[in-house]
Design a protein that fits this description.
Oligomer: heterodimer
Structural class of chain B: mainly alpha
Largest sheet of chain B: none
Number of strands of chain A: 10
Largest interface: A-B, 28 and 23 residues
Radius of gyration of chain A: 18 Å
Strand content of chain A: 15-25%
Strand content of chain B: under 5%
Number of strands of chain B: 0
Shape of chain B: globular
Order of helices and strands of chain B: HHHHHHHHHHHHHHHH
Radius of gyration of chain B: 26 Å
Amino acid sequence: MTQFQTEQPSAQHTGTEPVIVARDVEKWYDNGFHVLKGVTMTVYKGEVLVVMGPSGSGKSTFIRTFNALEPYQKGSIEVDGITISHDLKNIEAIRREVGMVFQQFNLFPHLTVLQNVTLAPIWVRRWPKSKAQEVAMQLLERVGILEQAHKFPGQLSGGQQQRVAIARSLAMQPKVMLFDEPTSALDPEMVREVLDVMRGLADSGMTMVCVTHEVGFAREVADRVVLMDGGYLVEENTPQEFFSNPREDRTQKFLSQIL
Amino acid sequence: MTTVTPDSFSSAPPEVVGLGPVAWAKKNLFSDWFNSLLTVIIVGIFSWGAIRLTSWALTTAQWQVIPNNFGLFMTGTFPSGLYPRIWALLAIVCGLAGLSWGVLGRNVSTLFSRSVLIGLGLVCAFIVLFPPTRPSSLKLLPMVALVAIAAAAGRQAGRKFPSIGKWVSLAWFLSYFAALWLIGGGLGLTPVSTNDWGGLVLTLFTAVSGIALCFPLGLLLALGRRSALPVVRWLSTAYIELVRGVPLVALLFMGQVMIPLFLPIGSRPDRILRAIIALALFSAAYLAENVRAGLQAVPRGQNEAAMSLGLNTPTTLGLIVLPQALKIAIPAIVGQFISLFQDTTLLSIVGLAELLGIGKSILANPSYLGRYAEVYLFLAVIYWLFCYAMSLGSRKIEEKLNTSH
């Protein structure tokens, strides 16, 4: 696996500078369902935070509030020092700094792999096409998709598509990357190639928040693991403690179901 | 149980054994007594119909009405001295059509494949041999040649300058105004009053204008109906539901009577313009629903992915959502265009001499009394040709935009 080179000094995992600060975040769906019931969490620069929890626990919804894909009604979320408000300019500014990788990849099927990766740098960062393409090709090489640059997403396997999606997010040079169950829609033999890319990204010092069920990944790569259930943040712990000696009964029960 | 040798893992698909014609017929047409009976009955009915039609067309039918009025059919009461202008227009359209074909097919190994050559040959043979339209239609032969030459040129140009497509689109856009000028005159050409526009030229002109107007309007209405702004949404919905609840004929009559009421006194827009506006307003409501269906078929994740990259709403719409939505909606949109093309026949009701209207007035001439079958069959073939060309075009575009494999 090639190493990701970024400007941050690497191997400095648990920094002290907060990138995302969520305070007492509460959210109701339009149908009145209370999905987040006051969640407080801080993500520090350079750390890898894994969010686990049963389905319906609100974990995906929670990380989707970090880039305003989901609005919230109470509490506050600060990303890179900017508080998320309803102002469109403010939201766009935050989204430029927060990358997101989805369960269903969500690549743009009518654009080639290269166009997928260069789109946002060209239209949002206003980079000249040549620069955007140069950076895109470097990123595609790092995720191992260089040969497929001129194919369309529909011609790639799921694992390849997810790696392109990661490259597409990285092209915007985000300060933090959100992963919303990035391997859940993949065939088992393709999970590894995507996790390898994420591992390399973590090694390069990228700040990452990952919603995932991959215990191995959480154990080896995470700096902190949190459990969400029923709209609450149940436990926050180091991976060693979380998996071998959890504080909460709820965590114990959850682990006994997935391990 | 036999062991599998590596040789049996050949990468080629298994050979498909074709059925001989007799075996094919036995399998598909005469598999049991019921199917055999159906085959005999259906073939019987069809061949009886075909024989009757052919014998009528060759013996009883009096085709003279078509060549005698060919100019009328094509251009209505357009002054015959100015026909060269119509020929010039046809040459422009043929040239551009050939050019587009060449540019689009620049990466195909043989532009003039066997089936294309056979098609061109058939068109030429039809022009030369088909009695109804001779001799006026002989002048169409150079036009066919022009299409072929332009296609060859377009292919060369397209290979040399890959970005030529944009310029061809621009040329099509400009050709509309060239058409307006050549038909209507002015700017150095003898003006022709719109009362003298007619026939196929008027049909095509109204159809093209209507399509060009209704597409952007329909797009805006579709977006409006999905807008987050309540007033925009309500207005768009109200417009769509109102117009879809009114028959086109009523709208055309209202267009003739009511559009002038909304305009300042003294400015009486032309009858043809009023008809085009009514046609476009009508089709836009239906088109909006087609586009909306396409918009709804684009997964939500596409929007979310674009937004999470920091793209703003107009960029997301223009670069991500609309291209996919329109691609999905192409069959429905082209269907709407075909409808609009056929709806131009209703203009004869409000007194415009488009193709069908001209047909009717020719039939009213005592010398051609009772030539209904000949005239209407001829008109049907013309309408079918244009509609089929549109659906063929839509299929080609769909193939070109397919990126799934």
